[in-house]
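Technical annex, item 7. During the second reporting period the consortium partners agreed on a shared format for inverse folding records so that results from different sites could be compared directly. Each record opens with the tokenized structure and is followed by the designed sequence. A conforming record, contributed by the partner at site C, is shown below for reference.
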């Protein structure tokens, strides 16, 4: 298992948190996520999922992942 924390731009409310939680939670291999406004800490199985997949899911939900 791997853990990563993404910094996310554009989140301003609880609805944003729920959208990011849902987007991340739908990915195969995610075992745990803690999302707050501006960040997401995710535990995932790196044999099933890459960090880039997590970033893509957040961006497809309408938010920008900061590097």
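Designed sequence (site C submission):
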């Amino acid at each position: 298992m791997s853990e990563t924390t993404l910094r996310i731009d554009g989140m301003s409310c609880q609805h944003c948190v729920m959208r990011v939680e849902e987007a991340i939670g739908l990915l195969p291999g995610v075992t745990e996520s803690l999302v707050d406004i501006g960040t997401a800490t995710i535990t995932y199985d790196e044999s099933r999922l890459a960090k880039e997949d997590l970033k893509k899911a957040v961006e497809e939900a309408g938010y920008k992942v900061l590097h």
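The beta strands are 2-9, 30-36, 39-44, 64-66. The radius of gyration is 11 Å. All partners now use this format for quarterly exchanges.
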